[in-house]
Every structure is written in C-alpha cells, then in structure tokens.
Design brief:
Elements: E1 7-11, H1 19-30, E2 36-38, E3 55-57, H2 64-68, H3 77-83, E4 85-86, E5 90-95, E6 103-104, E7 107-112, H4 117-120, H5 122-126, H6 132-154, E8 158-161, H7 164-174, E9 179-180, H8 197-200, H9 204-207, E10 210-213, H10 222-229, E11 236-239, H11 245-251, E12 256-259, H12 264-273, E13 276-279, H13 288-293, E14 299-302, H14 307-310, E15 317-320, H15 325-337, H16 342-347, H17 354-369
Parallel strand pairs: 1-2, 1-5, 2-3, 4-6, 5-7, 7-8, 8-9, 10-11, 10-13, 11-12, 13-14, 14-15
Length: about 375
C-alpha cells in the first residue's frame, strides 16, 4: 500500500520580512502539512502568517539577542545548521547560505537565492564601510565556511536557482547544475488595503510618490535612491528596516518618508497609490517590480542580476546602468515620459504565478517519489 510522501520545509532564519520569507510562505501554502525548520524564529520580526504553521527551531533560538539580530549568530550558524536533523522523505531547503546544510533522512531539494553572499560576493554584500570586526571575522572564518558550504551543497539531490544569474553562480561556486525557477509573485491586488498614515496624512496619495521597498543594507543602495530624490519636487516613500536605518533617516530630506513594519494591506495601499517603483539594489531576484506590475505601475531598476529576468524593458519598466543618483533620476524621467499599458504589465506576471511555482515543485517531488521503493506519493 502506498503512503503519502512526508515533506518538510527548511529556511535559514525567520527573523525578517523579505522576498525569501515570501517564498517560504508560498512553499507552505503548497505543502500546508509540512513543518518548517529554521535556525532562528522571531514571530514579531517576520510575517505574521508564519504563526499559522509548525515552526521548529535550533537550540540557539533560545538566545534573544540572536533572534533580534541574526548577523551576531554568524560564528555559530554552521554548527546550528549542522545540528538540525529533519526526518522527512523530502526537504525543500530555501537557502541563501544555511538551510542547505540541515541534515535530512531523505532527499534534499534546494531552492537557492544565492550561494552565500558573504563568502562569494563579500565586497558587494558588505558595502564600502563595514565594521572592522565583521571583516576580520569573515576573513578568519571564510576557509572553514567555504569548506562547510560546499559539503552542504553536495548533499542536495537537486538545485533550483531563483534567477539566471544565480544559476551561473551555483555552477561557479559548487560546480553543480541547477534549474531556473522564478519566485512566485503572490501580492493580490484585489484584496483590501489599509492607509499608511505617515503618507496619507501628507496627502501624497493624491499628489503621487515613488516607492522604494528594501531591506536597509549596503548592497541595496537605498542611499543612492534617496540622493536621487533629495531636494527635488518628486516624493519618495522608503519601506524597510535594517542596519542602515538611522543613517538613511538622517540623509532623507523633507520630500522623503521612511516607514517600516507594514502589513500586507498597507503595502497594497502604497502600491495602489504610487507613480512607480525605484530599485538600485544588487538583487538576485527582482520581486518588487512584479508586485508593482500587479498594480499596473512601472519600475526603474538597476540593470543587474535578477532584475534582468523580471523586467521587460519598455513594457514593465526601464533600467539604469549603475547605482548612481544622476542615472536614477534620469531613469525616473524616462518613466514619466513613457506610456505604460496596465494590461501588458499585468500579463507579464503570468510567468511568475504561484501555480507555475507549485507545478515545478510538484514535478520535482514526483521525480523524487519515483526513487522511493515504498511507492510514496505527494
């Protein structure tokens, strides 16, 4: 008699709100009975929907400081990842550096956002002025971390890459083949919205503004976007939090509003009232232009990485070639001079639907299932 395939989901750490966490939620919707394993879990720091799922953590989750700032956990994360053992027929590992190292009794399918950026793209990830302590720590640990990382990658049965650039990166770092599977766009433009008072009270929803939605990290280049808008007539709303929050708040002029910890309903309100999206980040996958397109809004983005897969130039947005304030400003000029057909923007999203994502995962599961002698089924 056949039995249902036992599936589990793994993720590096659930301590923040970003595109990777949205992918984990999509996986959880596809496999609602699957427990989610992670090193750290902060229910208040990540999306509230995770409270509805079975979250299982490593022992270091007991340390409050690490839950609030996972970067402090770097020296112990390899040990925490290696100590997590998952009893499942198949583990879907959502990874940018750690969950692909979780041990499992069955098959491990890795959905990779990028091989660890702090190992293979250190200068881009850290920015121009990281702390000396962080640089020293990474320099000291890099040889051991790379050895651990490559062993972890070799333990996978299959790799999916979130974008074409990540597919190349997986080959370079690990010598492994992978299949490009774009992340799903799950923001439903038909659902209710909630006013963001910091913006609505200024009347900007009538006058128009541009959106920049990002974690506030050096490689996201939010400072360059702020510089492009500072002192001008255009308005900018920056959504996000992170280590650069105080620095960027000091930089922002009176035509710029910074907000964070918003609900999905508030994010939908911001998209519905904005004039367009601006992103200068080095993204492995450009999710926010897809979310903007769901509302018929075009994007001006950096010609790099995942944005090359998610923008249809001239149809859903425009590119600028460097994260330079003058080039960003010129790209926004192009947005305002262009004509953007809402129907074409929305049609572009078909390639990035949750159904296509689910179907690819299910096909991978079916392939894995064929290798099980007990005839288990998804």
């Amino acid at each position: 008699m056949s039995k249902k395939l036992k599936v589990a989901i793994a993720h590096d750490y659930l301590t923040q709100r970003g595109g990777a966490e949205k992918v984990v939620l999509a996986m959880a919707r596809a496999f609602p009975d699957a427990p989610i394993y992670t090193t750290l879990y902060d229910p208040d720091g990540t999306y509230p929907e995770f409270r509805d799922f079975d979250i299982r953590t490593s022992p270091i989750n007991r340390i409050s400081l690490l839950r609030k700032n996972h970067r402090f956990a770097l020296p112990v994360l390899p040990f925490a990842a290696s100590a997590l053992k998952i009893d499942a027929d198949v583990v879907l590992a959502s990874s940018s550096g750690w969950s692909h190292g979780f041990r499992t009794t069955g098959e491990k399918i890795v959905y990779c956002y990028s091989p660890a950026r702090w190992l293979y793209q250190r200068e881009t990830y850290l920015g121009e002025a990281p702390s000396r302590a962080l640089r020293a720590l990474l320099w000291m640990y890099s040889p051991l971390l790379k050895a651990w990382d490559r062993r972890a990658a070799a333990s996978a049965s299959r790799y999916f890459a979130i974008s074409s650039v990540v597919k190349s990166r997986i080959q370079d770092a690990y010598g492994l083949p992978s299949t490009v599977l774009p992340a799903p766009q799950s923001l439903d433009a038909s659902r209710p919205t909630e006013v963001v008072e910091a913006v609505g009270n200024l009347g900007w929803d009538d006058a128009g503004y541009y959106l920049c939605i990002s974690r506030l990290l050096p490689y996201k280049n939010v400072d360059k976007v702020i510089d492009a808008f500072n002192g001008g007539a255009r308005r900018l709303v920056v959504v996000g939090s992170g280590p650069q929050e105080s620095e960027l708040a000091r930089l922002a002029g009176s035509n710029i509003v910074m907000v964070k910890d918003l609900s999905d309903a508030q994010i939908r309100w911001l998209y519905s009232h904005c004039s367009g999206l601006v992103a200068a980040s080095y993204e492995d996958f450009g999710l926010t232009p897809l979310e903007a397109a769901a509302y018929g809004k075009p994007s001006a983005v950096l010609r790099w990485g995942g944005f090359l897969d998610t923008i249809d130039e001239g149809v859903t947005g425009v590119y600028f070639d460097q994260p330079d304030p003058e080039l960003i400003e010129a790209a926004v000029d192009d947005l305002e001079a262009g004509e953007w057909a809402s129907s074409k923007l929305v049609d572009h999203l078909d390639t990035f639907s949750e159904k296509r994502f689910f179907d690819a995962l299910a096909a991978s599961m079916a392939s894995t299932d064929n290798h099980h002698s007990d005839g288990a089924k998804v």
